[in-house]
Structures are given as C-alpha cells and as structure tokens.
Design goal:
Number of strands of chain A: 38
Strand order of the largest sheet of chain B: 12-14-13-15-16-21-20-19-17-18
Order of helices and strands of chain B: EEEHEEEEEEHEHEHEEHEEHEHEEEEEH
Shape of chain B: globular
Largest interface: A-B, 55 and 55 residues
Radius of gyration of chain A: 28 Å
Structural class of chain B: alpha/beta
Distance between the termini of chain B: 55 Å
Oligomer: heterodimer
Largest sheet of chain A: 7 strands, antiparallel
Helix content of chain A: 25-40%
Strand content of chain A: 15-25%
C-alpha cells in the first residue's frame, strides 16, 4: 500500500446550524485512523473547543480559517503529500473544491484521499448529479437548474406549482423551501442567488417518506450499507429538523433492499471511496422513489448512524481512503469479526432535534426544509415508545415525556399539524388526546400511521394512569413504554421518590444492554450500553473501581462542544491516572459518546432515575458533575442527597454559588463588591427596587446557563413583562434583580482550586462592554487593556471565594470592571465554556489539573508556577452566529446568548488574533471600500469618531444615516447621507444594500435597548440575508476598523499552535 | 393475552404472552438477526421444524401481504404457507398500515395455526443459544409437552413438492431439485428467461432433457437426503452445469465426496460477509443454515468458492474444471441483500 507520509486534514470550523459537533467526532476518528498508521497529521481547524484540536491527536494544529486563502498558505509551508476533505463537513468540502479549481492541489502535487473532487462535484452540482444518476436509470426529482429569476419562473411553470427550490453547495439546505406561487419564487430565488450561483427548481414530494442510507465503499469495489434510517417527519421537513428512527420501521424487505441496492449502485457509479449518505423520498402508496441527495462526505447522519449502530464510520472511511479493503479492518466492537458487514440492531434508536428558537427575537417557530435546530439527542430503547419518551426528556425542555406534562396547548391543532413547529410531536399527542383519529392526523401531518399508532399507545397508557392509579401490572407496562418515575409521579401528584420506592418494592428495574453491531450473534468486547425496561437480564457485569463522569447532553446555545472537550479530557486523564471510567451522555454529535473514549459508555439519560440506576449497579467510587456544564451541575444537590459521592467541590457549595440569593448574600458577607441586588419577592417590591437603584436593571433566574430568561429592563413596563417570563421558567429556584451597570468591562477568571486554594488560573477580557453575554463576546487572553491593579483585585476576590466555598476543582467567576473597581456578577463551580480556550492558549490543561484536584492528587500541570498573563502571543475567541439560517432573527447580541459556536485564533498582536478569528467565523473582508455607518446615540457616535476618521483616511467611502451623518459632518468627516426606509427618500439604504453597494455595514443600535428600532432591524436583517459583512457592536466595530486599516491579510502569520 | 413461556433443553425459561395460535409447540430453537423480511422468512421451507426467535424487537410493523399466485407461483411469499413451527419475539405490531398489507402478523399466525410468544428478551435468549449452541425448546401455554428433535426426521421429504411442476417458457431448461426451494430461486431463474422444471427431492431427474441443474435450499441434516445425493452424483457424470444454494451446497459437497457438520448455532441473518476465494471481493449475504461443508474434506479436484469472513467457515465450493458450483448463502435473497444475484447470471451463462 502506498500510504502518504504527511496528511493535511480540514476541519469544519465553528459550530453552526447545519454543521455542528458531528465533525469533531469524524475528524477525531480520522486522526486516530491516520496516527495508527504512523502518518503525520496536520489539522486546520479554528474551533479551539474541539477534541480534535487537542494536543494528543494531530501532530500540528493550525487555528486558522478553513478557507482557500489560509489553507493554501499552510500547504505551501507544510508540503503535505495528501489532503482529506470528507471529515470537515461542507466547509472542508467547499474549501477543497475551491483549492482544486484554483489548481492548487495539482500545483503542490497533493493527492486527495478517499472520494475524489470529480465525485464531490458530481454530488454537489445538482444538474451534474441528476445527469449522473440518469446514466444508471436511478430516479431523481424532476428538476431544472436555473441561474436567473426568469429561468426559475420558466422552470416552475414547466414542473407546476407547488415546487421546491434547492441551492447547491449549501449546508443544511440553506435557501431551500417549498414555493407556492411566482411571487414567493421570485423573492426566494433572488435571495438565494446572492450566495449561490445556481438554484434548483424541483418536483414537490411533500408527504413522501424520507429514508436515508449510509453507504461505504472500498477501492476494491466492496460496498456495504451500515444503517438505514427513517424520518418520522415526511418529506418537506429537513432531515436535520426531523425525528429520525433507526433502523427503518415501516419498510418491507422489498423496499429496504431495493433502496439499499440503489444506494450501492449509486456509490459505485459515482466512484466514491469511503463513506457517503444517500437520501430518498419513498412513496407512501407504492414502491416508487426518488433519490433526493448524496453527501459524498461524513455528515450529521453518518455520525448518527455510527452512534446508532456502533459502527465507527469515520474511522473506517479514513482507513479506506488510505487504500485498505473493508475485509482487512477489524470490527472494533467484537474485535473478532471484520468491518465488512452490516450491523444488525436489536434495539430502536430515536434521534430528535434540539431547537433553541425562543432565544431569538422575531424567528418563526415553524419547521420546514431549512435547518434551524442547534443540536440533537439520541435515545435507545427496545420499544419505539421507550426510545421516543426518553428522547423527549433528553431535550431538557421541561417535558417529562410525551404525555403527563405541565403543558397547556391552546394552539390550533389542525394548523399545527399541517404547518408544524418545534412542538410537533407534543401536538400529535395532544391531538390524539383530543380525539383526533390516526387517519385524520396522518392526513394533516403526513406522518406515517405506524408512528401515530405508537404515540397513541403512549397517550392511552397516560390516560389509564390518570384514571386507574398505580398497580404492579400497569407500572411495569408504563416503564416498558418509557414513562419515567418523575413522569408518573407528576401525573399522580406524588413525589418522584415515592414512585421510585414503589417501583423498587415491586422489583421493577431497568436492565443494561450492549450495543454490539451483531445483535448478540458474537460476543462484544466493548461496553457500549443503554438501559431498558424491556429485558430480563443484564448484558454486562459492573466494571469495578470506577468513576462516573456526567456528560453535557444535547448541544444548544450556550452548551456545546466545549463541555464535551472538558468531559473527554477528564475521562482521558482519569484513565491515565489508572481509573476505570464511566461516561453517561446522550448526544450523538460528540466524541464523549465514542465507546473507545471511556471504559463504559452509557448512552442514556442524564436524569436522576438513570444515573441512580447506573450508580446502584456499577457502585462507582465517585461521580463527577463539574465537567458537563449545567445539566450535571443542576443534578448535584439531588445526587448528593441520594447518597452518591460527588468528587470535587461539595454540593452545598455548588448550591451556594448557583442559588442567586445565597450567592449574593455570601458576597455581602465576604465584603466582595457586586451590583446592587435583591431577591424577587412581590411584583411591587421589585418595581420599587428598580426605581430606587435606577434603570436599567438585570433580572436573573438561578441555575441557568447562557442567560436563559435573563433580561435587561429599561422601564417599569419591560420589567413587568420579564418578571412573568422568569417566573414561568423557574419555580424551584429564586430569581434576583440587580442594577445593570453600563459602560463596564467584563473580565473572567477561569481557575482550578484544590482545597480552597487556586492552583491554576487564567484571566480573560471581553472586547465588548458588559451587556453582551459572555458566550457571544469576543474574548482575549492574556488581557490587553487591564490595569495591573484590576488584575490584582480579580485575584484577591477569586482567592477569597475559592477559600470560602472550599472549591476543589474547576470554577469560573465573571467580573465587571469600571473605573478600576471590580464587581462579581456570576460564579460557577464547574468547568466553564472558556476552559478549552484558556487551556489551549496557555498550554496548561486546566481539566487535568481539575481532575487531580478532585481526586486529591498533587497537581502535575506546570501552571501553578507559570503565569498565564505573560504570554508572548495573543489568543482571541470569537463567537459564531447562525443568523443567516434563522429567518427574521435580529442579528444583535445582548444578555441572552445567541451564538451557536466559537473559534479562536492566535496572533502576535490583538489585532492579528482578532482579524484571524473574525475571518474564521466566516466574516468576509469588505469587497469594496464602502461602509455604511449607522450608530445610535451621540455617546456611541463620539466613541467611534476616531475610527471613522481612520476609515476615511484609509480611503473608505462612508455612507451614514441621518443622525450619524450629521454627527460626522459636524466633526468634519466626509460622508454621504443615505435614507432609512421610513424617510421614503432616495438613496434608500435597503436598495443600496440589495444592490451590493456596501462592503461593510456597521449598525450599532442604541445600547441596551431591547427592542431596537424597526428600521435598524431591517438594515441588520438585510445585511444578513444578502451576505453583507455586518458589525453591530461598538467595541468590535472600533477594533475591526483598526485591524482593517493596520493589517495586511497577506501578512498574517501562518503558524501552528505548536509553534507558539 | 394469555401467559406463556419458552422452555429450553437446558432447563432455562422465559416468560411472555401468547399472541399466535393458542397451543404449545416443540422444535429446535434458532435465532435470526435480520431486521426486515418476516413474511419471507416465515415461509422459507428451510425453517421446517424450527421455532424461530427474532432478535429485532419490533416485528409485524408492515403487516402481511395478500396471497397472490401468478404463473403457478406464490408472489409475495417464499412458499404457500408458514413453515416455522413457532415464533418468539419481543414485541409484535398490533396494527399494520402499509399499503401492501392485507392483515396483521397476529391474524396471519393464527390463521396458519402457528404458536407465537411475545414479551421475550430475545437478546438474552440469543446469547444463551450463542454460548450453548442451538437447543431444542418449546413454547408452552398450559400443560407440558415433550422436546422434539426435528433433525431426526426427513424434513426435506416433508417440504418438497410431490410432483413435477414446470414454470416459464424459456429456451434453456433447468431442473430445480426441490429440497424445500424458496420461490425466489424460481423467480430469479424465470427472470433470466429459463424454463424451470421443479422435481421432488428424490426424483431421478437425470433422465430428463435439461441444460442445467439447480440444487435448492432446504431444512435439516443434508445427510438425510441420500436419494438426492445419488442423483447429483449421476448428474455430475453427465457433466451439465450444476448450481447449488444452501442445502444444495451441502448436497453437492456430499456428492463430491466431502463431509458436512453441524454448526454450533448456525448462520441466520442478512449481514454475513463472504469472501470470494482468490479475490479481494467480499459480499454481504443473506443466510439461513445450521449445517456447513467441512472444507478440509474437499476432494482435490474441488476448491472453496466463498469463505465466511467472520468465522472462516465454508460458504461455497466449485469444481476446478467442470461447471459445478454452489454457495452456502442465498443469492436469491428474499429476505436480505441482493448483492450476489449475479451468480444466477454466471450459472445461466454456463447453460
């Protein structure tokens, strides 16, 4: 075999809607597969929170944008002999195609491993794709590719409305959708053509079943399909928005194998080597089908298929791309059989999307052919009902299951069934409760009757429980159908504990089953496990002398790959220290749910019930709750009360930090400054407090992450509204209100303490002023603009808090700094979102230190001596927003987090690090030197005056709206006045934008105003919809302008992490 | 549903509920790991005498198609009736909604008088069979019944057609030796424009006018089929192409002078990888067999054709010079993957 010596691997960059943690999983697997062969791996990925960018995997990591400009420079520098494009999602694939088109692959004699560029183009270009499939008589939807609106209208007439539009080279179906008439079509196509060169007008197949296969092929033409999956939601709803079930449930042998055969025929014809995903529409009334699309790369579905079956698709695909045959690779689960087989499942898997739509203002809750979900959960059971109810709980949206919830559905059921929202499955249950027949729901929703019948079984059981109360027979049946103890107790108005006790007395318990790829035909050597009440024996014995690490659950806004990095780092270090590790998590997009990461993987709920059952059986030495973010953190008190041994900081201390009331009291006692605060009692009291300290005020519930229901109020009326919202969210935990301090800097302390003494720490600084959630903020390390005295104070206060709470393990404190005074605003006694960032920038693994602290071991990290303030480079972390995917969302940042991911880059100056990281989020430098400047409030305008001058001096033409324009004129800066919509005068700002007249839009809304002016919103939204670079924050605008005008993109340093 | 239980030879038992024909039954308990294809499997004559446990926990999801005979052949099933003696599943689907469904699984089982039990942890049962080997067992509703070893009977004689039946009008004539043939073998030949002459298992077909011989699948111990083996020996003398499937593979081996043996727990699934000897080609195959050819005993003018990648057992043999070959798996699929259907083309080319 002619194996390459040095391979360049492209990652997928920041997590965004449509491209998330699954590519950390696939990239990590690819690196492992290459390293096993002794191949040097160079990774390009600016996503610093990923596991693939950890020190133990690739030989060199470039925290640089995955785009041709940077990748070409890395190629010139590193001279790899091969490149891998299929492991970093659409981002890597697009980058690879562009490199190839620019002739750079040929120029550097770079071999593409696995699927070749030609095959990628055949699958990505819709017209080519249709033609290629027609060559082998495989059916695709009738369609026409168009490049103009006129052509689109023509094509639509030929096919007949309704039609579908699709956009080539777009991840997650961006710009796709059903179109009913010419007006809608015109708008959609016009928009799509701003970011794509062609749009496809297609036959409308809504209501057909949607089926996917994961297909693998080696260079000897051996093919297998690893898994097929059936969407619960029919065609018309993006597969990323659908509930997906594996294996298919409603397909006959004929249908299953017919589609399988076509899949193999297609992969052969396209010449794919490695892995691909093929999506079908299957008629619900015959065996007619269409191939909808082929993804010639690892995808979200392939990650799901890997987790659903235990077949490590990415790892195998990497090996195949090196030239191995399927028959030459071992099945890693059985370690006896080979990878050339098709997994047989003896369980059912249900994947459910996780949306976070309430975080965005103005976003429609409807789901359709564009992806809006930010994460997913995967549940495993031996009944569909069991898996479905588990999945609903895993979403952590306050539901106990499909039924028996605190939920008042007043929506119009007919409307909701035919135009589904994120509540779809709950609405189906509600409809059944209200007496809708399976047939009627099928008519309205297109969901297959088999699934509806299953939901009906759950609904009926739920009603029986309410009517008959609990008996042994019924309880056993409820458990088999996936009802949790908490769900049953809620329905009967009892405590969870009571139901749990009754259940225990009756001897009803879940059994532990293995996922073994072969349905028990061969013994499995790995502990890839789940719990089920539909069984009669355990598959495994307790692992012994173990430690449980609780994972972070579904990715959502505020909790994503960074916590997975923490969990994985912790598990790996525990193993290095000689402990058996047990991981519990249910997110299929993660590395933590790779069964070879830990000694035992429980792919199951992070609920009190599941954790207790696992704990009871495994009898571990301890449980770690501080790595997985807020979900495990919130369970700390309950687990502790149940007698489990929590490693690290005590549950009482965690509670003292999480409970806003207790924490604020503690700070008062410690004499640590904080914004004036008060616990919410009565409505009137709160209003009085606000008037007393003066608006704006901040309302904060306890035990939340990423600022859910956290809000700034500017008036009595706003405050009243927020109070209602916060009360809905948390009834168990107190809500406090505090003075919101404006114009302050925000500083964070990430640290690890042992027995109350800090052993490693890192101080970081936000670029944006306070008021932008820390998850959305641009963060710099080491701090660049802090007084020495401020830093000293941050240290002193952190030490005080660590000592008082007797912290053992990771923690994070957030401070406000203004006029050299600091105030504490938040403290979390767990690893924070920025732990991977500070660990990788400082090269001190904070998680290793935290793990040792929790175990009472001496700290081996060099950090205690080394100061993280004295680095001779700068790290800058920037947030990735997915506003372009969320129609109507207002693209601004405020106290509630809205970003979906992050990147971080390193530079020799702040400007350089910032510029790289901004580019890594997909920000495009202005194509022309025209800038729209619209800044709210004279104070803000004054602050940006200097930068406006720099812009002008550097040859930028400034356009400004009324007040900004006047202000600039007054200050002698030349600009062109442009009119807002309401002014109804030419030149009109929106038409200028749509015509691509601006290279950059800076729209800074008047600070902290929750509902910004309509016109400003339109400007921001238009910028997003027409892909014009947009900045909405004052400090960022300033830094960007300075960076733009002082840096030359061509001279940015191309250095690997290891070279800093 | 009435309480019911599965009892195995080694004394172990599993509690469940009866959902088929309400009567106890004895037989050999085997497991299959396929996830689709129960109408095809249950009507496969190779299961004669066996109680089938399915590892996939949800069975009956798409109901059962209607009976439909076309050209003398049942279209939707592999034979005209259910062949398994009993069925063991975790859950069965009470309702069926598929467009091709005529009745529910339960109705079909009851109509065919097949006992069935649900609520069984078939994974636990499978692990037992995997560790201890295939066992005799019984489904009991009330009252005990004796264990019964079907392998001591001539199962082939029970499932074989009793008279000669002809299908199709092709120019080439293939004799199908029916030792329990699945209908899809016939369909695969008809699709290639072959006239199929289906003869009883012990019929001396060598006197017929034919271009090739197809040895079918079938149940039980191949060594029971003495008459068939003798006829195959005669056919080998004649020298016209012979293609064997499953039991046909074992019978061809025995006729050639090799030996067969019983596997610990057989291969019954749709995901068995088989390497084609001397190539780098590996095929995913559908399988259903308890016996296998002992490759070591192959005479010197024979060679292995396919080998199982998982356990190294023989998956096919071929004659080094003459047009005789056979495979242990099911190239006709139904249920299962169709990747090896090209073997029919190979056979037809030889005719």
């Amino acid at each position: 075999m002619d194996k390459p010596k040095k391979v360049l691997l492209l990652g997928s960059g920041a997590l965004k809607i449509g491209e998330a943690g699954e590519f950390d999983y696939s990239g990590s697997q690819a690196i492992k597969a290459l390293k096993e062969e002794g191949i040097e791996v160079i990774l390009v990925n600016p996503n610093i929170a990923t596991i693939q960018t950890s020190e133990h995997l690739a030989d060199k990591v470039y925290f640089l944008p995955v785009e041709p400009f940077f990748v070409a420079k890395i190629i010139e520098k590193e001279r790899p002999d091969a490149i891998m494009l299929s492991f970093g999602g659409q981002t890597a694939l697009n980058c690879g195609v562009e490199l190839s088109r620019a002739g750079l692959l040929k120029k550097h004699n770079l071999k593409v491993l696995g699927t070749q560029i030609k095959a990628i183009e055949d699958t990505e270009d819709r017209q080519l794709f249709v033609e290629r499939l027609a060559e082998i008589e495989v059916k695709t939807p009738r369609s026409r590719a168009v490049k103009t609106v006129v052509e689109a209208i023509d094509a639509a007439k030929e096919i007949g409305y309704p039609i579908m539009t699709r956009v080539a080279f777009a991840l997650g179906g961006r710009g796709s959708g059903a179109v009913k008439d010419e007006a809608e079509l015109t708008e959609k196509v016009q928009q799509a053509l701003t970011f794509a060169s062609q749009v496809l007008i297609e036959e409308y197949l809504n209501g057909w079943k949607e089926i996917e296969y994961e297909v693998v092929r080696d260079q000897y033409d051996n093919c297998i399909t690893v898994c097929n999956m059936e969407n619960f939601d029919p065609m018309g709803i993006h597969t990323g928005e659908s509930i997906v079930v594996a294996p298919s449930q409603t397909l006959t042998n004929h249908e299953y194998h017919k589609l399988r055969e076509i899949a193999i025929k297609v992969i052969r014809h396209l010449g794919i080597v490695g892995e691909c995903n093929i999506q079908y529409a299957l008629s619900p009334e015959s065996d007619d089908y269409r191939v909808i699309e082929v993804n010639a790369r690892l995808s979200r579905s392939s990650a799901l298929a890997s987790k659903a079956t235990g077949y490590p698709l990415a790892f195998i695909a990497a090996k195949l791309s090196l030239g191995y045959g399927l028959f030459e690779i071992k099945n890693h689960i059985t370690k006896k059989t080979m990878a050339c087989f098709e997994p047989a499942l003896d369980y059912v898997v249900v994947k459910m999307p996780k949306w976070d739509l309430q975080k965005f203002r103005n976003v429609s809750k409807q789901i359709g052919s564009e992806m809006k979900s930010v994460g997913e959960v995967m549940a495993i059971g031996r009944k569909f009902e069991e898996a479905l109810q588990k999945a609903i709980r895993m979403l952590q949206i306050g539901m106990y299951g499909l039924v028996c919830n605190r939920l008042n559905i007043e929506n119009n059921i007919d409307e909701e069934l035919s135009r589904p929202t994120d509540m779809r499955v709950l609405i189906v249950a509600e409809a059944l409760k209200k007496g809708y027949s399976v047939d009627r729901i099928n008519e309205l929703s297109g969901i297959d009757k088999w699934f509806l019948d299953k939901i009906k079984a759950i609904v009926e059981l739920g009603s029986r429980l309410k009517k008959d109360g609990i008996s042994k027979g019924l309880l056993l049946e409820l458990k088999k159908y996936g009802f949790s103890d908490a769900q049953i107790s809620f329905s009967l108005d009892k405590k969870e504990e009571e139901i749990r006790n009754i259940r225990k007395q009756l001897g009803i318990k879940p059994f532990i089953k293995q996922i073994d790829t072969l349905a028990a035909e061969y013994p499995a050597e790995t502990n890839y496990l789940f719990l089920t009440y539909n069984a009669s024996e355990h598959d495994i014995k307790p692992i012994g002398k173990s430690i449980i690490v609780l994972g972070s659950g579904a990715y959502k806004i505020g909790s994503s790959v960074e916590f997975d990095w923490c969990c994985v780092s912790c598990v790996l270090h525990l193993r290095e220290l000689g402990h058996n590790t047990i991981m519990i998590n249910f997110n299929p997009e993660t590395v933590s749910t790779d069964y070879d990461m830990c000694d035992s993987l429980y792919f199951d709920e992070l609920s009190f019930e599941s954790i207790s059952e696992i704990h009871e059986y495994e009898k571990p030495d301890g449980v770690i709750v501080s790595m997985g973010g807020q979900i495990p953190n919130n369970l700390a008190l309950k687990l502790d009360k149940a007698g489990m041994k929590l490693l690290g900081t005590s549950a009482a201390s965690i509670d003292q930090a999480e409970d806003r009331f207790k924490f604020s009291k503690l700070l008062d006692e410690l004499n640590v400054d904080q914004p004036e605060w008060k616990e919410l009692t009565t409505h009137q009291d709160t209003i009085n407090f606000a008037s007393q300290v003066g608006y704006p005020v901040l309302v904060r519930p306890s035990y939340v992450l990423s600022g859910a229901a956290m809000s700034v109020a500017f008036s009595n009326q706003e405050l009243s509204e927020f109070l209602t919202k916060a009360a809905d969210l948390s009834q168990e935990h107190p809500v406090v209100i505090s003075k919101f301090i404006t114009d302050a800097k925000e500083i964070e302390m990430d640290a690890v303490a042992k027995n109350g003494k800090i052993v490693v720490n890192a101080i970081t600084e936000h670029i944006e002023n306070a008021g932008v959630h820390s998850g959305d903020a641009t963060i710099v390390m080491p701090p660049q603009a802090l007084f020495f005295d401020t830093i000293k104070k941050v240290h002193q206060v952190s030490e005080k808090i660590a000592a008082h709470l007797d912290i053992n393990g990771p923690f994070n404190i957030q401070f406000l700094a203004k006029d050299n005074q600091i105030k504490v605003i938040e403290c979390n006694l767990r690893a924070s979102r920025s732990f991977p960032f500070v660990s990788k920038i400082s090269k001190i693994n904070f998680i290793n230190a935290a793990t040792e602290a929790m175990l009472g071991l001496p700290i081996s990290e060099p950090g205690s001596a080394k100061s993280t303030l004295e680095l001779d480079y700068v790290g800058c972390k920037a947030a990735q927003f997915s506003f372009s995917r969320l129609k109507g969302a207002d693209p601004t940042s405020n106290v509630e987090m809205t970003s979906t991911g992050e990147v971080a880059c390193i530079g020799k100056s702040l400007e350089e690090a910032f510029m790289k990281s901004l580019l890594a989020t997909g920000f495009k430098l202005p194509k022309q030197k025209t800038v729209l400047l619209t800044v709210g409030g004279d104070k803000n305008r004054y602050k940006i005056l200097e930068e406006a001058r720099i812009l002008h001096d550097n040859g930028y033409v400034i356009y400004a709206t009324q007040h900004t324009s006047m202000f600039l004129n007054d200050n002698g800066i030349k600009n062109t006045r442009i009119f807002k919509v309401y002014e109804k005068q030419e030149p009109d700002v929106l038409s200028f934008m749509m015509n691509g007249r601006f290279g950059l839009v800076i729209n800074v809304p008047n600070q902290y105003k929750q509902i910004a002016l309509d016109d400003d919103y339109k400007i921001r939204r238009c910028a997003v919809d027409f892909s014009i670079p947009l900045i909405t924050n004052l400090q960022i605008a300033k830094l960007l302008i300075r960076s733009l005008c002082t840096l030359d993109k061509d001279k940015l340093e191309i250095k690997a992490w290891q070279e800093y | 549903m009435r309480h019911s239980k599965v009892v195995l030879e080694d004394g172990s038992f599993f509690h469940g509920f009866s959902f088929g024909f309400e009567q106890g039954v004895s037989g050999e308990v085997v497991f299959n790991t396929g996830m689709v294809g129960y109408p095809e499997s249950f009507t496969d004559p190779s299961y004669k005498g066996q109680i089938l446990a399915l590892t996939y926990p949800l069975i009956g999801n798409y109901g059962v198609p209607e009976k439909s005979i076309r050209g003398g052949l049942e279209e939707n099933f592999e034979s005209e009736k259910i062949q398994i003696s009993g069925l063991i599943v975790d859950e069965f689907s009470r309702n069926a909604f598929h467009w091709g469904s005529k009745k529910t699984l339960q109705a079909w089982l009851v109509e065919n008088k097949i006992p069935a039990i649900c609520g069984i942890d078939t994974r636990a049962l499978t692990k037992k069979l995997r560790e201890k080997g295939v066992m005799l067992g019984k489904i009991m509703i009330d009252g005990d019944l004796d264990f019964h070893d079907p392998n001591k009977e001539n199962l082939v004689a029970e499932v074989s057609e009793k008279k000669i039946i002809e299908y199709g009008n092709g120019k080439k004539r293939v004799v199908l030796v029916d030792t329990g043939a699945k209908n899809n073998i016939i369909r695969c030949l008809l699709k290639r424009d072959i006239k199929v002459i289906r003869v009883p298992w012990d019929y001396d077909f060598t006197s017929l006018d034919y271009d090739g011989v197809m040895l079918s699948n079938g149940p039980g111990d191949p060594k029971m089929c003495i008459a068939t083996i003798n006829n195959i020996r005669k056919a080998m003398q004649i020298g016209k192409p012979i293609f064997g499937i499953c039991l046909g593979n074992q019978l061809l081996a025995l006729a050639a002078g090799a030996d067969t043996y019983k596997l610990k727990y057989g291969h019954r699934s749709q995901n068995q990888p088989c390497m084609m000897q001397g190539t780098k080609r590996c095929f995913i195959t559908s399988q259903n067999h308890g016996f296998a050819v002992d490759e070591k005993t192959l005479p010197k003018d024979w060679e292995p054709f396919f080998t199982n990648l998982n356990d190294g057992t023989n998956e096919g043999i071929k004659h080094k010079t003459k047009p005789f070959f056979s495979v242990q798996f099911h190239p006709e699929a139904n249920p299962g993957p169709v990747d090896t259907e090209f073997l029919f083309d190979d056979f037809v080319r030889l005719l």
